[in-house]
Amino acid sequence: MPPPSDIVKVAIEWPGAFPKLMEIDQVIWNHTSKLSLFLSPQNRNDIKNGSILRLTTSPLYAWPHQWQRRTYWLLLLCFSFGDLLSFTLTAFVELMDHGIVSWDTFSVAFIKKIAGYVNKSAMDTAVLQRSLAILESMVLNSQDLYQKVAQEITIGQLIPHLQGADQDIQTYTIAVINALFLKAPEDKRQEMAHILAQKQLRSIILSVSVPSHMPSICTSPLHHWFNLSLLFPRFLLINHVNPAMDFTQIPPGMLALDNMLYFARHHQDAYIRIVLENSSREDKHECPFGRSSIELTKMLCETLKVGELPSENCHDFHPMFFTHDRSFEEFFCICIQLLNKTWKEMRATSEDFNKVMQVVRDQIMRALTQKPNSLDQLKSRLQNLSYTEILKIRQSERMNQEDFQSRPILELREKIQPEIMELIKQQRLNRLCDGTCFRKISSRRRQDKFWYCRLSPNHKVLHYGDLEESPLREVPHDLLQEKLPVADIKAVVTGKDCPHMKEKGALKQNKEVLELAFSVLYESDEYLNFIAPDKHEYCVWTDGLNALLGKEMTSDFTKSDMDTLLSMEMKLRLLDLENIQIPEAPPPIPKEPSNYDFVYDCN
């Protein structure tokens, strides 16, 4: 019976011994004890009968202590050789990044030497940069090394490096501070947070404009004991039975409660106003303060990447966070008021909660992209980003997308516009047929009389007449004694050009009345004067009368309707073309057939 194909006979030799003939299984290639056979799935099939394999000590066991000693002595020797030291440290950092050697193998003497380079007042920039990088890696990769590094390096010794002109040194210094802060125990972290929150240090960081990837170091200690039943009314939280359960999810955890307490204590007027506004609303229109605060804090943490490890690729810098001792809490206070304002503008209910949060996120992100220098600037920019403004911006962005600017889409818009305009025209004329009640304004400015005007169904006559009181429904044509044929109308004038706005007594009319006035000129310079009850009726009647005269409808109401209806019609027509590339040019027209002697047999 032939031997298995995986079994080969080879000569094995190792230091201090003669070669020995052995049978090995190619499937097994793991090392034994501290001697490792360099076999892998890629090369094991290359071993044939009669091959000679040589064993050697595994680098995993041979390198660490020897390499550490050699590196340490090399650093001692290189200290006086200028660039040689920086090159050695660079090579060291690159080799450690491969993970061949554990960071825990380094001695206290080695750490002291690296820390010594950082603590020296005058040190080569390249050496200092590499030393800071090594210390950061030590702290992040080993809790034991954190203890040793923390004994050699203090925040006070790192601050001078932030005041230098080299931005790379500043960035690496911030990275070391971040690492020490993240690895520190709770009591030590609070002590560091107090030092880092000092206004002098914030001014230093702000002046050098380093990338803002510092953690949330200014957050106050969390309140572990509180009385929710006294602080928050029943309707503000999610879990009414055990409100503490609302703060168990991390993030944001207790940070949300911290923000709510800060808002209630430091912005009492705004807090009371929000609570009173919500208590006076219908149940379905209440803005849940507790749930809003928790979700808003979570959103702010995600936006600012609070709690995440620092990123070397992040270059966002927000100067406003260095202008206040409690910047994050103040940021929350501004945003929670924005949320309540947006909730009112959207007339939201509890079912719209997620929609409101999406709009608030959009408002905050757009304001932050402008990099406000202070919290007051942020508040001012958020005030300008109302819900209506956000809708306009979103609509404009959708219309400015590449798909909506391509030639086929523009041609389709041009083709649809006349159809939409005709639809708007018919709607205006239908409203004129329904009629409107207008107030009569005399020279004595008494507004105790009414008159009614409506268009006949055939669009040829305007029927109008006086009324004793405002009607509750449409007034029939037979009750309106006066008539004005549309064919006799010469022009429609508005605003200051109206005769009743030029009269002596009417010159004192306020601007609002002036904007609602329009007149119909007919026959020998006679006028039918109108003052619309509101802007909507003004636009409807001026558009309708211009449409009767064959003129263009130019009111803001028409423009708004055109944009809305055109956008909806475009979306409906393009619905079936989603994710389909629309060609810029129309497909070529095929050539004519060589002859027309063909017929289609329907049978």
Comma- or semicolon-separated keywords:
603 residues; alpha+beta; Leucine-rich Repeat Variant; four-stranded antiparallel beta sheet; three-stranded mixed beta sheet; 23 helices
Explain what this protein looks like in three dimensions.
The longest helix has 28 residues, at 407-434. The chain is an alpha+beta fold. It has 23 helices and twelve strands. The protein has four domains: 7-54, no CATH class; 68-213, Alpha Horseshoe (Leucine-rich Repeat Variant); 254-401, no CATH class; 425-561, PH-domain like (Roll), CATH 2.30.29.30.
Report how far the terminal alpha carbons are from each other. Answer: 76 Å
Could you describe the largest sheet, including whether it forms a barrel? Answer: 4 strands, antiparallel
What is the number of E strands? Answer: 12
Cα shape: elongated
How is the largest sheet built, in terms of strand order?
Answer: 6-7-8-9
- Whole-number total of structural domains: 4
- Percent helix, as a range, is 40-55%
Unreliable spans: 27-38, 59-65, 72-81, 209-236
Average pLDDT, all residues: 76
Number of continuous helical runs: 23
